[in-house]
Amino acid sequence: MKINRNHDYLYLKSNTYNKPKQVHLELSKIINKKLKNTKSKYKHVIDIGCANGELIYLLNKIYNKCNYTGYDVLKPLIQKAKKKMKNIENIKFKYGSVLNKNLIKKSSGTAIILSGVLSMFDNFEKVISNLIYWTKNKGEVVIYGVFNDNPIDVFIKYRKTSNYNKFFLESGWNTFSKQSISNYLNKKKEVEKFKFKKFNIKFNLKKNKNDLLRTWTFKNQKGNRLTTNGLNVIFQLYFLTIRVKK
């Protein structure tokens, strides 16, 4: 069957530029710290899978002594981001895929972000290899997404009941194990160090009955807040930071 990814068009309706998501606020802390600790005068932050540019908008408000470039494979999202930030000279948005190694020149980014994108792919190695290739010496790759604490890689393809008679499945929720990622990174000579940091949602997310792929939270018997969606899977959310050496 053909594999599609249709859910990202929801960002055409999203408008959290001035009310940032918790994950964007925490990503901004990671990036801002990296920028402040970087001695080089030329600093470039690249957001792969930038959607409508909400994260870049936030980053530039916090630290505007930097160039920002966002890439996405959905042209309508790129157009929305360009329209929102058309008068900001240090921000650019371009069309392109993380799978295209020639998309960005080698060692271009002080920090490269991949947020909520890795789970779209069945193979993480090419994706992470390209991110490292595009990052400067002593720069950082920052990946946000779902990772499995258990040593099992999970591949998910789903279909809405309304599409039962259509010959395609949808993707976007694969979960690679921290162990698989660690085994790969430990063998990469360009990796100085890496770290997984758990992301905990600080408030309750309500179930959206009109979009069951949006995540919501619930509490277990111990009172811990867990994250799920209509796939009936519990997601473990992490930031993965990778320090590059070349």
Quick rundown:
This protein has helices at residues 22-36, 54-62, 75-84, 125-134, 178-186, and strands at residues 2-4, 44-48, 67-72, 91-95, 109-115, 135-148, 168-170, 176-177, 191-198, 216-219, 225-228, 234-235, 237-244. With 246 residues, it is an alpha/beta fold.
Explain this structure.
The chain has 246 residues and is α/β, with parallel strands linked by helices. The chain is 22% helix and 29% strand. The chain contains five helices and 13 strands. It has helices at 22-36, 54-62, 75-84, 125-134, 178-186, and strands at 2-4, 44-48, 67-72, 91-95, 109-115, 135-148, 168-170, 176-177, 191-198, 216-219, 225-228, 234-235, 237-244. The strands form three sheets. Strands 2, 3, 4, 5, 6, 8, 9 and 13 form an eight-stranded mixed β-sheet that branches. The chain has a three-stranded antiparallel β-sheet with strand order 10-11-12, with no helix packed on it. It has a two-stranded parallel sheet with strand order 1-7. Strand 10 (216-219) and strand 11 (225-228) form a beta hairpin. Helix 1 packs across helix 2. The longest helix has 15 residues, at 22-36. The chain is globular and about 50 Å long. The protein starts with a strand and ends with a strand. The mean pLDDT is 95.
